[in-house]
What does this fold into?
Amino acid sequence: MDAPFPFGFPFNTAVYLTLLVGTWVLHVVFMHYVLGGTAYLAVRTVCLGNRAETSTTATLLREWLPFVLSAAITAGIAPLLFAQVAYQHRFYTANLLLFYRWLAILPALLFAFYLLYLLKSQSTILHRAVFRITSKVIVCACCLYVAWLWTTNHLLSVQSMETWTRQYAAGTVMYRTAEILPRLALWVVSAFPTLAAWLAWQLWFNLDGGPELLSDVERETSAADVRHVALLGLCGLVLTCVLAAVYALQLPAADRTAFTGPLARIYLGAMCAGVAAQFAMWLMLWRRPQLNRTKLFIMSGGLAITLLGLGVLRESLRLTRIVIADLYPAHEAAATVSGRWLFAAVLIVNTALIVCCLRIVQHAREK
Amino acid sequence: MPTDFPYYPINEFGPAMKGMAIGGLGIVHVFLAQFGIGGGLLLCYFQWLAQTGREPLARQFIDGYFKFVVLVSFVLGAITGVGMWFMTIQVSARTIGAMVGEFHWVWAVEWLFFCLEIVAGYCFYRYGPRLDDRRRMTLLAIYSVASWFSLFWINGILSWQLTPGRFLETGVMWDGFFNPSFFPSVIFRTITSMAIAALASFLVVNILPEFDRAQRTVLIHRATHFLAPALIMPVLGIWYFMVIPADSREWAMGGNVPMMMFFVLAIVCSTLISAYSLVGLLRYQLYINAATATLLLVLAVLATAFAEFVREGVRKPYSIRGYMFSNSLMPDDIRRFREVGCTHDDPYPLRDADSYPNPQVALGAHVYRNLCSVCHTPAASNGLTHLTEYWDETQLRLNIAMLQRTKPFMPPFAGTAAELEALVQWLRWNNDGKPATWTESHDEATLQQIQAWLDEAGTEPWVAVAAEGRR
It folds into this structure.
């Protein structure tokens, strides 16, 4: 492949891969908030005990995590769909090989969901520190478990038929490979810069003079909160870069070319620029903790480019491990099915309606 | 004929039939999804009552009820929805693959409505109490329309499975989507959703502490209006039964005893709910307490369960009528497997190959795994032992070779004569209590007889042959 993603592919393959990456990035925006947010709450409550409850960031997370988990699941449906179109046989095989361990995603998510609502409700049961700490740790564990399963599923789906048959014959639903841990660690730490960006926007909306976002969150946003979020973003970025390097180094040399080859090179460059933009903004905010639109937009732009680059790099690595040309006929066949114009039309109409809903909410906040 | 059959690793669900796993999850999901859809419509109605001054309590009720919609439908409904997808992959990856292949844009459109539903729903949940009536109605209407459209789109795909209509000739997605049972089922499901939402509201009104007995009575009688459309459900049911294939209709009308029983039970449960609601609540304005409301809701769950069982069951021997059989094979696959065998190219070995007394029995176990295990277990639910233990050897061979005639809701056997004989030996070995030794059977005359039976039965399902005969 000697053209940047997705231009080197036949048109139909390019369409499905673009939709997969695009919707996956949307999912990651929410998923990072949940993964990073639950980990943040759990670590904070274990380290600080009762003091963990008083911060604005913790309150924001408790308030918003149930909704964002819902959004993450909903946004996750589209990449799930396009992954089936793009890599049907591989995706299904990995699902089947992991069997009940894969299906355990459902109770884990369900448990996490209701515990998050419990945390949000400030139920009397949570007045006892042990319940409070336990519930946050369990929520975090559920989210990490789901992340681990997705990582395993992805890695298993790019294996050869020999690996699959060996795995099946062994009768195990565990798939062990040295790649899982560094990849999972990378995913977890890369959630923190996204989480920090979310929190910065939420703090900004909560500032005096800014439009109020949360009626029930303390409106006293201090410089300390902003610095705290900036530090979270900075540490997250540094750790992400370190773990990305570790992950890349433990990959076989042939796989590493996925990142530097023509398919992804430009995205790797854009990603580095995105990381640099985020880093600069977080550093500025840490030194002078005053939020404003310009800084937030630059930082969010950097984040968006980084996540898009991440999505393409992830896909490029997958594409080096499989023979995508084998799937071209399937993509061509799928493309003969009607409905893409309907999808485009509904996308426009529903986006307009979503904007309409948000404007109504804006009205309520201003009121 | 295809040569690149996509083999998948096949899992055993222990004593549970795979259909029970997907059926159980499906019933919960359908019920919750319909509660969410009907809930949106009910709340629009109450908002209209509130803003036109017809019902002062309506606004308070809406804010209380919507919390239940979020906690139950948004959470459990969303997760069971994803669960349905994962479970369908486990049961029949090829079926869901075919559905995704043919309808991925429809599914993508449905996803856009999910997104809208979630945004509108959470906006209302969070800011609804602070909004004026016009804006509340706007949010509720958007939520309601979005959730109803999610039903609209998925209904087209699900009804296509039973009545693909002109799709089989044209291959055009819209011919499959607007299939013969699309409209009766979408209207039927809409009315069911309204009824479930009303029944749930009876319970919610009793749970919410802010209302006294008199206020609850008022709200219950308002919500009861949502049960009135249930009066036309029998007409819709008849319409639905008129458009589904004749053999499917016959299964439910007595051709298959369990199917008929579930069909009758679905009617009985629905009738009991309707009778109580229309006579007791609408006509005599009775009060309904939490216990009775719960009982009615349980009846509604049962009605949903029985109806979904029938809807799934009457598709047999297909998972997608005229397109794919319930064991994930397409008609061309059957023809090919009759020549080369269903195990010949399967890359996935038997996990317990050493536990069989000889290679022939092991081959039989492999045939069972590939062809039968999607609906049967060896000796538990829908167990083959229970179904075949009193058949003698010749009967086993004949009945399996002519499977589609033995039981018309079974697909044709998809393997060679040697594979069929191996399956027979595996069944006999199982039925005899799995002895340590077992003699192989390779009698040439027997294989020739099996082949003659296979040839006589052909590769067409009996329902297709019968339909041809009717024409």
